[in-house]
UniProtKB/TrEMBL annotation, chain A:
<keyword id="KW-0472">Membrane</keyword>
<feature type="transmembrane region" description="Helical">
    <location>
        <begin position="334"/>
        <end position="354"/>
    </location>
</feature>
<dbReference type="Pfam" id="PF00528">
    <property type="entry name" value="BPD_transp_1"/>
</dbReference>
<dbReference type="InterPro" id="IPR035906">
    <property type="entry name" value="MetI-like_sf"/>
</dbReference>
<feature type="transmembrane region" description="Helical">
    <location>
        <begin position="12"/>
        <end position="32"/>
    </location>
</feature>
<dbReference type="InterPro" id="IPR000515">
    <property type="entry name" value="MetI-like"/>
</dbReference>
<dbReference type="Pfam" id="PF19300">
    <property type="entry name" value="BPD_transp_1_N"/>
</dbReference>
<keyword id="KW-1003">Cell membrane</keyword>
<feature type="transmembrane region" description="Helical">
    <location>
        <begin position="138"/>
        <end position="159"/>
    </location>
</feature>
TrEMBL record, chain B:
<feature type="transmembrane region" description="Helical">
    <location>
        <begin position="557"/>
        <end position="579"/>
    </location>
</feature>
<protein>
    <submittedName>
        <fullName>Peptide/nickel transport system permease protein</fullName>
    </submittedName>
</protein>
<feature type="transmembrane region" description="Helical">
    <location>
        <begin position="280"/>
        <end position="301"/>
    </location>
</feature>
<feature type="transmembrane region" description="Helical">
    <location>
        <begin position="449"/>
        <end position="468"/>
    </location>
</feature>
<feature type="transmembrane region" description="Helical">
    <location>
        <begin position="384"/>
        <end position="409"/>
    </location>
</feature>
<keyword id="KW-1003">Cell membrane</keyword>
<dbReference type="InterPro" id="IPR035906">
    <property type="entry name" value="MetI-like_sf"/>
</dbReference>
<feature type="domain" description="ABC transmembrane type-1">
    <location>
        <begin position="382"/>
        <end position="580"/>
    </location>
</feature>
<dbReference type="GO" id="GO:0005886">
    <property type="term" value="C:plasma membrane"/>
</dbReference>
Amino acid sequence: MSRWGYFARRLLLAIPVVLFGVTITFAILRLGPLDPVAAILGPNTPPSQYARVEEQLGLNRPLWEQYIEFMVGLLTFDLGNSYVIQENTKAMTLIVQHAPRTLWLGFWSVLIPLFIGIPLGFYAGLNPNTMGDYFASFGGIIWRAMPNFWLGVIFYSVLSQSVTYSEMLTFGVVQFQWDAWIVTNNIGTPPPLNFYNSNGTELLTVGGTTISLFSFDWEVFVRAVKMVLPPAIVLGSASMGNEMRLGRTAVLETINSKYVETARAKGLSRRKIVWKHVFRNALIPLVPIILNEAFLLIGGSVIMEQIFAINGIGYLFFQAAIQGDMPLVGSLMYIFILIVVFMNIFQDFLYTIIDPRVGYE
Amino acid sequence: MSEVTQNRTFFGRIAANPTPALIWLGGVLLLLSVEFSAFVDALILFGEQINPLVGGSKDIGGWYVDTMYDSLGFAGGTVMSALGALVVLAVFSVFVKAAFIPFSIVERLGLEDLPISADLLERSIVGAFLVVLWLVLLYEPLAFLPALPLIGEPTLAQMVHGFAQTMAGIADWVVANVPTLLSRDLIPNQGFNPPASAASEYPAGSEILGARIAIGPYHGTFLGLSPAVAWAIRVVAIYLYAFVWLVWVWQGYKTFRRHYRFADWTPRDDMIDRLSTHRWGQFGFVVVFLFLVLAMFAPAMGPTTTAQNIYNPYGHEFQYVEDGEVQTITHGTANLQSASQGTPDNNVGVMNYDDYGRFHPIGTLSERANGKDLFTFMADGARVSLFIGLLSIALSGFIATALAMVTAYYKGLADLIVVVTSDSIQALPGLLIYILLSVVFSSHPISNIYSGGFLLALIFAATGWPALWRAIRGPAFQVSEEEWIDAAKSYGQRPSATMRKHMLPYVAGYLLIYGSLTIGGIIISVAALSFLGLGVAPPTPEWGRAVNIGRPYVTTVSWHIATIPGLMVVFVVTGFNALGDGIRDAIDPQSEGSGAGESAAAGGGG
């Protein structure tokens, strides 16, 4: 099968997956014992009002009608209005409002493991069975087994008492205050994302010609990065451990392969072998893992946003779920399902490009 | 082995040479007898779950039927209700038949000649029996039915209940009267150091088999030792006892291998040899063993009981010494006074006594949790985690194996359907679907069983089987291509028999690997949910809730509340991962640390 045929099939198979996934969500929401009308009105409401709201929301119609309406609504991205969180606000508006902070968090929690986990794993693989290897491997295992919610709590608490702890650890020599370091920021507030203003432009005159630049506030940017770092490190902790372990195995496997031996036999320098022959090939098995981790973050961000008080999508989902805001939960689920499914396809696509030996099955 | 012994069955071989087996069995009986009433106690605990289960099944079934009638109308509702009942019944019948009935009912009853499949008939009989039993248990006053007087007094229902009550009575008597080696009655750790004025009223030491022995000055504790030492002795004794069991089980395996096994060598011997040099896997085994013993012996582990500490603190009193006088106070009041609140004045830390002379090995919880003892909380919480983890792994493993057999045998459309279904379930982001399901079902009757633990186990099973199925699909496909499967087919063996006899044994090992690797993830997820205030409902303890309770105190002197439970999660999850690694390397040495097992291993997803 050709590559394009393979992807046509993958896309075709994605349709029932998405539909079925959304159907499961619908079944949980509508067939489950959740009562959205009670969630809106609270307890002790007169039955007449109850019936009116039920009528208004169309919840008294036959289930199959509701199902078709729900599916059509989702597929045309008409996600309906929120019931409880912000009444009569479009679910899409709410999601778009909350999305940037989660994306910012997700971006860093993918990036940090990439630049810490993989180099550490490669180092361990290149120096197997040394103290450094044991240290890195064992650290990776422990790091991976740490539950995010706990690690988040510890990070949050230690950072908010950074002065005491830095003094304690260095016997009073260093006084490190995290919230005043480089830029001042509060701990436990969402990171500011207005460093980049797409509307406002700055005019800059260079040598007689005027060029317009998008305004970019460096201080706010640094603050945003600094504030997102602790939750991102925690959120990426599991991926970091995973990438480290897999990176180590991949390097070990590559370095023991025949072509590396050949390269060594023909007298290539170790640096050249490592960078040209080992490094690039060892990256291949890591590609699917990295993308796999990326959608683990979707779920994990709920807890991080809860602990670090970042009002992103995860926070929105949690609130919507515990308050019984059905349309919002349904839409968020739909969007997550889409992301996961297309990320999967994208991952396979990338994989076949990077490693042409992979079969199309 | 000679020709004659080879052809005997296992029991035949034991009958021919009974000495080693009898020695081993004697050891088992001895080990059981010293802890007999504790085991009976555990049986009572299981028995007590039957009534809520039967009652709950009625609620849940009723809810299902109502929902179906509401949403699908009369005809659809009837069909769906009947279908649901049939599916549940079928699953239970197959399970009961496979697990509890070792002989063929059809053969016993002489029904082989009936023109339907023997298996189907057998399961139908079991199913019918289950329905009758369920009805009898559920509608106890069967005597009101007009037909029942024909059976006469006492009715069947009364007999069943009478039997159950008699058994419960006997069990209660055993628990109350037979001494147990590791109980808090024999090794008590709750006591006080009486002042000199009251020393004659409160003699030192505790009564052991009628004799009062005292080494230390304390009244009521084991040998009059301090509560801390008495508690430590009990915990060490429990672990020693569990260790002896472990050694004896291993001894039993060796006895079997030497005297009663048909073959001199099997591939399993090599697996065990590989495990015996796998240090990392052994580390995992030790950790898992520590965790299992903590969970299984939770009632005897804690320095105080769960009833005194968690469920009914105001219903239990104890004595302590204040201003040179012996006072009496309820546990609840004392707990509130000894909560850890983050200030040095209000803190009972690790390995400390509170103001009332009670010992707290890892401190107390904060006022939000009424200052309960953290160790008792954690020991009981270990039970909850273990119960959820094991039940969900068992359920999802069952689903995954059944589907893997079917998809590998039939391939094609069956495979495609399961692929789409499992992909859809896996496309739902993990933690979010757990949150959603636990919120949706939080007021449902099913969430009353084991404080929602049962519901969580079902949730994890329903969302967890695709990953397990994916993991064992490869090996199942591989074995389905083998020649012996073709041979079995050409002999005309029934597909179910081929799957069970020729495919399942090959796949079962992989199930063990992935089960061990995923159970850590489940423990983390359960803890994460209770951290968010969902899942296992208070007051039933759960590790994640302790982290949540201790959240404000991490940087204070009460750091233990959040830190120790978190570290325990890390420890246990690492242990399960290591054990999984060890089993994988033992079963499948070629895989050597790569493959899908890595991503299946528990990450701190929660």
